[in-house]
Each structure stands twice: as C-alpha cells, then as structure tokens.
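Hey, resending since the last one bounced:
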Amino acid sequence: MTSPCALILPAAGRSTRFGGPRGKLLEKLGDRCVVAWSVGAFLQRSDIAQAVIATFDEAPIRAALAAAGLPLERVCFCPGGTCRAGSVLNALKCVDANITWVAVHDAARPLVSQELIDRTLAAAREHGAAAVASAVHLTIKQAAGPLPAPVQRTIDRQTLWAMQTPQIMRRADLLEAFARCPIPLERVTDDIQVLELVGKEVWLVEGEERNLKITTPLDLRLAREMAGLGRK
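The structure tokens again:
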C-alpha cells in the first residue's frame, strides 16, 4: 500500500485581478464552483487522506464543496497567511502527522487531470519532491524595469520552465525547509522553492495546457471551453 498524501489548497487570495463580488474561486464552471473542481480532483482519489484549505472566508467555500457533493469529512480549514507561503505553512501545520506526502495545488487550477497528479506523485516518490512545469515559448529579456528601459540580456528559453501545480513533497521535508528558510516568506513565489532554498533536490514533470490557472475572466471563459461547457 502506498503512503497517504494530503492536499494543501491555499485559498486566501483576494482575486483582485479577476474582480467581481464573489472572486474567481466561487465562479461557476458548469454545475460546480471553480474551487470545488480543484478540491474534487484530489478527493476522488483513494490516496488522498486529507485536504486542508487555508482561507479567510471558510463559509462560502465549505458551502461550494457541499453543493458539489464532496466528502467534507476529509476536509479541514485553517486561517490564511499574510502571503501564499504563509498560507501553505499554516495548512501544513494542520496535516496529520501520520501522512507522509503533501500535494500543494492552486485553488484556481480546476482542470488538473488524474494523469498529471499520477505522474507528479510518482516522480515525488522516486526523487523526494516533484512539481509540474511547462516549457517557456516566449522570448524572455532581462531589463531593469519599469519600462521603458534598456535590455540587459536575452535569457536562453531552453532552460526556462513556467511552474504549475500540483507540487508534491514529503511533509517532514517541507516542515524542515520552512524552519530553515533563509529569506522572508513574502519573497517565496513558489511552494516548492523553500526546498530548493535549503538545498533539497526538486524534479520537474511536464505539465498540460489544460491545467491553466484562472486569474482573469478571460481565463474562466477559456476553462469553460476546455471543459466543453461553453458559457455555463
């Protein structure tokens, strides 16, 4: 039997770029809210023993999960942090000590596939930590902004990867990394970055275009099209 895994879902953002009174996580994608898709992708799995959601507004998220028929007995909530890494740390402290692995996933990535979760979890179990990434297809230039500003250099995009989630690692390793993190948590821009900062190895697995993060209303429309839901 494989070791159990917990889902950590940081959901304490303010959706300022999305706008609207409800925020992106409570927008409908078909017959359920965005956050219910993201949580449901993991709770349908037998290897996910617990889901911890970090948020400042538990009631509407709990209601959205219940309306989607998700098993709330495996879900608990904790307060969000002052930054994303703070929310992840708060949730990590709530994970059952008997759980070996944690998967951190964006609450606004509702279309994550089971195959992608499988591949990331397999790579994490083989190498200790793994995260989803996609190739960078744009030309990236470095400049001291704000623009207009002169170009300093062009970065070789063949070595660049844009991060997605889930990001999966051992619970104990992530706790240790947070305890030893050499920079303020506000400067941590990626969940698995704290492992890198303390010298732990992280592997990347190839992501999927469908695994988009909803940031703007245009992203939501694209997600609906990808899910075959049209305007629903």
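Residues 5-226 form a domain with the Spore Coat Polysaccharide Biosynthesis Protein SpsA; Chain A fold (CATH 3.90.550.10).

Sorry for the duplicate.
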